[in-house]
Design goal:
Number of domains of chain B: 2
Strand content of chain B: 5-15%
CATH superfamily of the largest domain in chain B: Periplasmic binding protein-like II
CATH class of the largest domain in chain A: Mainly Alpha
CATH class of the largest domain in chain B: Alpha Beta
Oligomer: heterodimer
Radius of gyration of chain A: 27 Å
Largest sheet of chain A: 2 strands, antiparallel
CATH topology of the largest domain in chain B: D-Maltodextrin-Binding Protein, domain 2
Number of strands of chain B: 11
Order of helices and strands of chain B: HEHEHEHHHEEEHHHEHHEEEHHHHEHH
Largest sheet of chain B: 9 strands, mixed
Structural class of chain B: alpha/beta
Helix content of chain A: over 70%
Strand order of the largest sheet of chain A: 1-2
Chain lengths: ~300, ~425
């Protein structure tokens, strides 16, 4: 039968049909991811290109002028006297948020990974802030953190004179970090919880038989086996921390001084408040590069820190 | 024969329908929809604006005007974002602080010719000081429809409970000075006899909108920059004295609620508040207190007044700028200005008399109208503004944060601020 088919191919025609199985498969694949690709092109790639184009211009919205200035905005970026402090505040915010968020999420996940009656209630309780409106959450915290607000009122019951949380440089930064951590810790907690429940019980049983204490079990079994989740949550949290805006806008407006002016808030000020859309776009490019480099670095680090990856 | 008949019928139908269709197209093309962005969402304001727009439509049946309320706090940002997005409104309210940016950038359509050509408009009766900020090279680019003086609202009940002298008593004794005003505020704010009440609140300041402190520092003869806007004046003695006085009132005398302390005068929780007279509408009706309205106290530099303004401009980029300018002329003519002055005090001389103002401000007494409103509008300086104000405002706000702490170095901080805003002022 096969011989008969081979004979059916006319002589001199050496090439195979265009729609081979491989090509059909790849077309199918492309069609499946087409909606996502179109979305990314329209909402990510084209705006990214436009932002880069804007960054090479001085765009005066009120005067309706759009002048090509080459690398002038990038020169301005290098010479901007506020930028080092803004980048410093961004780094402190991100570092504080990532460390506090991941450790608290892991701690909560370990505590809630128990077979106890009513444990679901606690899991729901810790997750609930994730579904609360961000601005509403932040406004309520704004009231609580006032000098004569709820938190200092509670401290006063114990005879403690609370600080003016949002007016001190250090306390303002701590406040915005904590408000953001409490808002989103539930999401990471759920991811850790799912990872913890995927760790086989037999490994713990074997460790117990070998006499390994609980902390050693956690360090030698739990951590390595949930390391892919640690990588995932750290990438999501770092990228998210660099995009924080509403909390800063509602709670501190970047103050006192520039102590809580993170990069996103600074670029919002430059573009939308001061009308420097060209320079604002340049800051966006900087933010994009920082997020890209950090994500790439974390992805590379996975070979060293992720012990188990399917 | 049949063919001819059919052809004739078709031609006749075309002859009838084409002009009708064309007239329809022409009518659709003539329809003009104008949009004005505003920062008020008050029902009473919108009702009045819509009435004026409906009256305008009687003479201009093809023109429909709509009013779009944008949030007050982010108004200018929202407006410029609309402009950047190619969706600029036809007309826009402009804050006095942003006036220089809008007027000098060329974003606004020149109004002088349209206003002068409007029947009975009488632009000359609008005081020159009121239009100063809204014109360039003798041409008016926005009309200051609201010129509202700052004054001190007083809660006599709270002050009497604290055993202090009320502003009315101080005025009667010729002692209404900043020192005595702060002494009264301090008696309340220290919390001895009336715990939990605040002294004096500079409304809307909130340790952010520092330009509202002009209501105090103008009494010291201070100004943030020179009249030509080129030189920082914050290191000059009057400003250092004024901010030292304010700092002392906040942190030592407890006369002004400190940073992060929320006290609402209109809820009856403070002795005094400095704000514009239009805020009289916030006075409580359910649990009224004995209130008063008095001029700003005398400062070391003598008597003074401060006014806030709002302008209406026509966007140059709009397709129907000429029609929009005609609507602005109609909205702000003497007759409609009289209606608007119920909420927005007018700078027209014919409306600056006790008889008119009493009708439009029924809550105010004759004396309050004479001493606060008329004198304030006639003599008041406008709240500070500058080209590129948003950036200057933010830079100064950020710098002043170093003053809003008990152990501040006022003079040193002002020196730093001048160093930072000096290049911005010269731009």
């Amino acid at each position: 039968m096969a011989v008969a088919q081979d004979n059916a191919i006319p002589e001199g025609r050496s090439s195979s049909p265009f729609w081979t199985v491989a090509r059909r498969d790849s077309l199918g694949g492309f069609l499946f991811i087409a909606p996502q690709l179109i979305g990314i092109t329209i909402f990510v790639l084209i705006p990214l290109g436009l932002v880069f184009w804007y960054s090479l211009h001085e765009w005066n919205v009120l005067a309706n002028t759009f002048t090509y200035t080459g690398t002038q905005n990038y020169q301005m970026l290098i010479e901007d006297p506020n930028l080092p402090q803004v980048l410093g505040s961004t780094a402190i915010f991100s570092a504080g948020l990532v460390v506090l968020n991941l450790s608290l999420a892991l701690l909560l996940a370990v505590l809630l990974n128990q077979r106890l009656a009513g444990i679901t209630v606690f899991r729901t309780l810790f997750f609930s802030p994730v579904v609360v409106s961000l601005v509403a959450w932040t406004i309520v915290w704004g009231f609580l953190l006032q000098k004569n607000g709820g938190i200092n009122g509670m401290l006063q019951l114990f005879g403690i004179e609370g600080p003016n949380w949002l007016r001190g440089e250090t306390t303002a930064m701590i406040s915005v970090i904590v408000v953001q951590v409490f808002k989103n810790v539930g999401l990471n907690m759920i991811l850790f919880l799912a990872a913890l429940q995927g760790v086989p019980n037999e490994l713990y049983e074997a460790a117990r038989i070998d006499g390994a204490p609980r902390f050693k079990q956690f360090r030698r079994i739990t951590l390595p086996l949930i390391s892919p989740t640690i990588l995932l949550t750290s990438i999501i949290t770092i990228a998210g921390s660099l995009q924080v805006f509403a909390q800063i806008a509602v709670l501190t407006q970047g103050g006192p001084g520039l102590s809580t002016t993170v990069l996103v808030y600074y670029l919002y000020q430059q573009a939308f408040q001061f009308h420097f859309f060209g320079y604002g776009s340049t800051l966006s490019i900087l933010l994009f590069l920082i997020v890209a480099v950090l994500t790439f670095a974390q992805w590379q680090l996975r070979k060293r820190i992720v012990f188990y990856e399917s | 024969m049949n063919k001819n008949k059919t052809l004739k019928s078709v031609l006749a139908a075309l002859a009838l329908t084409v002009p009708l269709a064309c007239s329809g197209i022409a009518k659709a093309e003539d329809a003009i929809n104008l949009r004005m962005t505003i920062w008020s969402a008050a029902e009473a304001h919108l009702k009045l604006f819509n009435e004026i727009a409906a009256d305008f439509k009687k003479d201009h049946p093809n023109v429909t005007v709509t009013f779009e309320s944008l949030p007050f706090d982010t108004y200018t940002t929202a407006l410029t974002t609309q402009i950047a997005g190619g969706n600029a409104p036809d007309m826009a309210w402009v804050f006095e602080t942003a006036a220089y940016d809008f007027v000098n950038s060329g974003a606004l359509y020149p109004l002088t010719d349209t206003l002068k050509a409007a029947p009975g408009y009488n632009l000359d009766e609008v005081s020159a000081t009121a239009t100063e900020r809204w014109q360039k090279d003798g041409t008016l680019y926005a009309y200051p429809f609201s010129t509202s003086p700052f004054a001190v609202f007083v809660n006599n009940d709270v002050i009497k409970a604290a055993g202090a002298k009320t502003p009315a008593e101080l005025i009667a004794a010729g002692e209404w000075t900043w020192d005595n005003a702060i002494a009264t505020a301090s008696a309340v704010g220290q919390g001895g006899k009336v715990p939990g009440k605040g002294g004096l609140i500079v409304r809307d300041f909130n340790y952010q909108s520092w330009q509202n402190l002009a209501s105090i520092w103008n009494g010291f003869g201070a100004a943030p920059w020179s009249a030509d806007g080129k030189t920082c004046m914050m290191t000059e003695k009057p400003m250092v004295d004024a901010l030292t006085f304010i700092h002392d009132a906040i942190f030592n005398k407890k006369a002004i609620p400190g940073p992060g302390e929320n006290v609402d005068f209109f809820a009856g929780n403070a002795a005094m508040t400095i704000t514009q007279i239009s805020r009289a509408s916030l006075l409580p009706k359910d649990k009224p207190f004995s209130w008063d309205l008095v001029p700003l106290p005398k400062g070391p530099a003598g008597d003074y007044a401060l006014i806030g303004q709002a302008g209406i401009g026509v966007m140059q980029s709009g397709k129907n700028a000429k029609t929009a300018a005609e609507f602005v002329a109609y909205m702000t003519n003497p007759e409609n200005s009289a209606k608007l002055s119920r909420f927005f005090p007018s700078a027209r001389k014919s409306l600056l008399n006790a008889e008119v103002l009493k009708k439009t401000n029924p809550l105010l007494s004759q004396e309050q109208i004479d001493k606060v409103v008329i004198a304030g509008i006639a003599t008041g300086k406008v709240i500070p503004g500058h080209t590129g104000f948003a950036q200057i405002q933010q830079t100064v706000r950020s710098g002043l944060d170093a003053i809003w702490r008990p152990d501040a170095d006022v003079a040193g901080t002002l020196q730093t601020i001048c160093g930072q805003i000096g290049p911005l002022l010269k731009r």
